[in-house]
Amino acid sequence: MPNRFYSIDRPRKKEQLPKVLSLEEVQNLINCTNNIKHRCILSLLYSAGLRRAELLNLRIEDIDSKRMVILVRNAKGGKDRQTLLSKSVLDELRKYYKEYKPKEYLFEGMHGRQYSGTSVGKLVTASAKRAGIRKKVTPHMLRHSFATHLLEDKVDLRYIQVLLGHNSSRTTEIYTQVATKHIQKIKSPIDLLTLE
Q: Which structural domain range is residue 76 located in?
């Protein structure tokens, strides 16, 4: 049958800004986590801008310490990409590897199985609570924070897009709306007034 509902308006999709942690909050979140495995998980989510599933799918060979990159296989949309491997995170990963000796996946749970997404969520929530962060913190907030902090540090939006694995630069441009360092440089017109 022909479509007879051309005149019905579709509901507009709400466009919410990404929720972001400050540099200080990220530092507190990682510093208050003493378990080396949990510390590495938090550090990788933030330092490489990984999605939770990408982190859980990492295999030991995906960490390329010679080129200082992480290979993210079969990410969203079935694409592979490379992202940053921080020197400090690599040092922590080496300590973790010596202690836990994972076999296949970089992070394994009980009986050598892949670590669970629920465990990562609980870990992030517990660390945020210990760090005294009052807002609800999710693993994806660390990815948003990664992108925002890179943008605030004047990294080109195109590079951020590649690191995050976004197809469109429009997806990455949303971080320009939450990058406060640029906003803080703008003077409000009220500051030009002499108020008594």
A: 23-181
